[in-house]
From TrEMBL:
<comment type="function">
    <text>Required for morphogenesis and for the elongation of the flagellar filament by facilitating polymerization of the flagellin monomers at the tip of growing filament. Forms a capping structure, which prevents flagellin subunits (transported through the central channel of the flagellum) from leaking out without polymerization at the distal end.</text>
</comment>
<dbReference type="GO" id="GO:0007155">
    <property type="term" value="P:cell adhesion"/>
</dbReference>
<dbReference type="InterPro" id="IPR003481">
    <property type="entry name" value="FliD_N"/>
</dbReference>
<dbReference type="InterPro" id="IPR040026">
    <property type="entry name" value="FliD"/>
</dbReference>
<dbReference type="GO" id="GO:0071973">
    <property type="term" value="P:bacterial-type flagellum-dependent cell motility"/>
</dbReference>
<keyword id="KW-0282">Flagellum</keyword>
<keyword id="KW-0975">Bacterial flagellum</keyword>
<feature type="domain" description="Flagellar hook-associated protein 2 C-terminal">
    <location>
        <begin position="486"/>
        <end position="747"/>
    </location>
</feature>
<dbReference type="Pfam" id="PF07195">
    <property type="entry name" value="FliD_C"/>
</dbReference>
<comment type="similarity">
    <text>Belongs to the FliD family.</text>
</comment>
<dbReference type="GO" id="GO:0005576">
    <property type="term" value="C:extracellular region"/>
</dbReference>
<keyword id="KW-0966">Cell projection</keyword>
<keyword id="KW-0969">Cilium</keyword>
<feature type="domain" description="Flagellar hook-associated protein 2 N-terminal">
    <location>
        <begin position="10"/>
        <end position="107"/>
    </location>
</feature>
<dbReference type="Pfam" id="PF02465">
    <property type="entry name" value="FliD_N"/>
</dbReference>
<protein>
    <recommendedName>
        <fullName>Flagellar hook-associated protein 2</fullName>
    </recommendedName>
</protein>
<dbReference type="GO" id="GO:0009421">
    <property type="term" value="C:bacterial-type flagellum filament cap"/>
</dbReference>
Length: 760
């Protein structure tokens, strides 16, 4: 915005005058601004109303229009403490008998206590399995196999394998597992109940080459440097690949090398992803190692270049200085021997000399160009020597490193670094890494396949060989492994035996949940009946939702007039309090849809749809047939009431026709009410169908038409603002011309007065 220095000669308040001149035109343009504001408020009000209408359409109305939703059943049990039953629409009406023969169990294993290892140390999650006694024969490794349905994990026990590794392997197989450090016991269990989810834990022996191959895979993939998710990904990949046949692995290796190959099955895609996971981790590690090696090599070259260029006349410092350097080195690393400290000190001495020679070179250049003037008897060499003498060893190290960094950044060194990296990481190296990964995977799989069964070492973990079928219950008071076998639930329904993996069994439309066993000869009676109350509640919920939205629509349509109210300008808002502004705008917004044609048409159509009747089995039904009517109070404007509704004070004492209809003729009530609701559903569907350039689908108002009008108004407002700016500039230009003319006139008057000998 330009800064105007106006009224300097005339003394007029030009800004105020221009503002008043422009205000008349601004007031004319305010009508367009008001239209845009009112349209925005109208869009907001319709958007809010549309959301509520659509919610009615998709929830309570959608439920009520489908006759199948009236088929819910009410089920009662003679003994809820043993059996709880619910029924869907297909549940057979009448009485049924149930006995509970067996409850479902999840397999659970509780190990014996393992307090100390073979070395007498307290057992923790970090205790190794070998220290616990899981030891294989010479040249062998123990393999613990955990099978849980289709999942299988094999844990090759090495000298580093811990109790926590065993727990994590159980978890990877889909089990719950924990070593309780207070009880010193392993707790292992299936997540799901039923015989289908039994698991086994067994041990065997394999050649130690399996452990070597697995360790090679982990080393190449930088396993120890990965986070938990990365380690889990490698473990999962190894487990997937070791289950493949030799032929499948060979084919997989070939496919992994073919970038154009597309897996043909989900299983193959998973296998290919597993192989590439390990290969990519291995390649990432090799690439990172190659970069580190190349950088270190280049920095070494840079340091050598610096020393070679600056230490041509180097001679070792005197014994006193060398001893000081040795003391410094030992202070930074107390573990160094005297001999090693002396080697480092000699290196630092040479670096210090290089720093001094560099300062000397810079001083010579500065003296030559006149930027450095030395005292009498001083030269560049003595200047450099004095400078170095005033620096600490830390500062000298920093200056030398700066010289190395400058040399390291040179194109020559950077080229050497790239050449070194290229020699370490290239296409051939990438292929070698992939081949090494593949070879170790194959070796690991081959050695595992050779495993000899029956290592029998799980007792060292407080466990035993677990086949997943037997229940092990030691004598009372003894400390031994306890196994609860997986079992299915079993019930007898009307003479038929039914089983399930959980204690909830679904059959013939009934959902039966057993919580206890029946005794011999005992049965539980259940009764299935139509759920009249649920149907009544569904209709009542619809009526409430419909009344809520209709009441709002009536309020909006019949709102009082606000003809004398217009949106406030910025100046008007500035002269009012926030509360006054809010009340003013709320009054306008509340009447924004007054006598709106679209709203009126929609309200009338919805009322008419619910006043319609339908025919079922040759008989006509309307809402009134079920005691659902409008009030005689015209001010309610079509709100519905249910005769006998206990929550409706005016109608609570009337005969409850709706509940009676559901009890006496549920089919007729369901089909008739669903038909009337369908009429309203169709009406609302038609009212929110899409019309090109007018309204979008699922929209009850002309949103597209309003959006087009908004764009037109915004364009008009922008044009008006440009016109106001031009008009304002025009007035300022005119006043500026006037000021210029008055200044010239004053100058001429002053000159004339001077000639006549008078003063202004």
């Amino acid at each position: 915005m330009p800064i105007r220095m106006s009224g300097m000669i005339s003394g007029l308040d030009t800004d105020t005058i221009v503002k008043q001149l422009v205000s008349a035109q601004k007031l004319k343009y305010k009508k367009t601004n008001d239209k845009q504001t009112l349209l925005t408020w109208k869009q907001e009000k319709w958007k809010d109303l549309n959301t509520k209408l659509f919610k009615l359409y998709t929830t309570d109305l959608s439920k009520m229009r489908l006759s199948g939703n009236y088929l819910s059943k009410a089920v009662t049990s003679s003994n809820d403490s043993l059996v709880k039953v619910t029924g869907d629409s297909t549940a057979p009406l009448g009485s049924h008998k149930i006995t509970v023969n067996q409850l479902a169990n999840a397999q659970n294993v509780t190990g014996a206590k393992i307090s100390v290892d073979k070395k007498g140390k307290e057992v923790t999650n970090n205790t190794t399995l070998q220290d616990l006694g899981v030891i294989a024969g010479d040249g062998k490794n123990t393999v613990i196999t955990i099978k849980n349905g289709t999942k299988e994990q094999k844990l090759v026990v090495t000298k580093d394998t811990t109790l926590n590794d065993f727990v994590e392997s159980c978890k990877s197989a889909g089990l719950t597992a924990n070593f309780d450090t207070s009880q010193k016991k392993l707790f292992i269990g299936s997540i799901n109940s039923g015989e289908e989810y039994k698991f086994s834990i067994t041990s065997s022996e394999v050649d130690e080459n399996a452990a070597i191959a697995l360790q090679n895979i982990k080393d190449m993939a930088n396993y120890s440097g990965l986070d938990t998710a990365g380690k889990s990904a490698v473990d999962s990949a190894v487990n997937t690949l070791r289950q493949l046949s030799d032929a499948e692995l060979t084919a997989l290796y070939e496919h992994a090398n073919d970038s154009s190959y597309k897996p043909t099955t989900d299983a193959e895609s998973k296998q290919l992803s597993a192989l590439k996971t390990i290969q990519n981790y291995a390649l990432s590690k090799t690439q990172a190692d190659s970069k580190t090696t190349a950088v270190n090599y280049a920095k070494g070259e840079a340091e050598t270049n610096v020393l070679n260029s600056l230490t041509g006349g180097y001679q070792e410092s005197d014994a006193n200085k060398m001893q000081n350097l040795i003391s410094y080195v030992k202070s930074t690393n107390s573990t160094l021997t005297d001999a090693d400290a002396e080697i480092v000190a000699k290196k630092l001495d040479k670096q210090n000399y290089a720093v001094q020679k560099n300062i000397e070179k810079e001083a010579e250049a500065a003296i030559a160009n006149g930027t450095l003037v030395l005292g009498e008897g001083e030269d560049a060499a003595s200047y450099a020597q004095a400078q170095v003498a005033g620096l600490s060893q830390v500062e000298l190290n920093s200056k030398f490193q700066r010289l190395v960094d400058i040399e390291y950044a040179s194109s020559n060194i950077q080229q050497k670094q790239q050449e070194k990296y290229d020699s370490l990481y290239n296409d051939q190296k990438i292929q070698d890494i992939k081949s090494a990964v593949n070879n170790n995977i194959s070796s690991y799989k081959t050695e595992l396949d050779k495993g000899a069964a029956g290592a029998g070492v799980l007792g060292a973990l407080g466990l035993g060989e677990i086949d997943g079928t037997a229940t092990t219950q030691p004598p009372s008071g003894s400390d031994a492994m306890v196994v609860v076998a997986a079992s299915n639930s079993s019930i007898t329904l009307d003479g038929a035996t039914l089983t399930g993996t959980s204690n909830t069994i679904v059959a013939n439309g009934l959902t039966i949940t057993a919580t206890g066993l029946t005794t011999a000869g005992q049965f539980i009676s259940i009764n299935v009946a139509n759920n009249s109350q649920a149907n009544y509640d569904m209709v009542k919920n619809f009526v409430k939702s419909y009344n809520d939205i209709l009441k709002e629509m009536n309020t909006l349509y019949y709102a009082g007039s606000t003809r004398d109210y217009a949106p406030l300008s910025d100046d008007e808002k500035a002269s009012m309090s926030d509360d006054q502004v809010e009340k003013w705008e709320t009054k306008i917004k509340d009447s924004i849809l007054r006598r709106d044609d679209t709203l009126g048409s929609l309200t009338t159509a919805m009322k008419q749809a619910l006043q319609s009747s339908v025919t079922y089995n040759g008989k006509q039904y309307s809402l009134a047939a079920f005691g659902i009517t409008t009030s005689k109070d015209y001010t309610e404007k079509g709100l519905l009431h249910i005769a006998g509704d206990k929550d409706d004070t005016a109608y609570s004492t009337s005969a409850d026709k709706l509940l009676k209809a559901f009890n006496e003729d549920p089919d007729a009530a369901a089909n008739a009410l669903a038909g009337i609701a369908q009429n309203l559903y169709k009406t609302m569907t038609d009212k929110m169908s899409s019309i090109p350039n007018v309204r979008s689908i699922y929209t009850f108002y002309n949103d597209k038409e309003m959006a087009t009008e908004q764009l037109s108004l915004k364009k008009k407002i922008a044009e008006n603002e440009d016109k106001l700016t031009a008009l304002e500039n025009k007035y300022y230009k005119q006043f500026s011309a006037m000021e210029t003319a008055m200044a010239k006139l004053q100058s001429q008057t002053n000159a004339l007065s001077g000639l006549l000998g008078t003063s202004s």
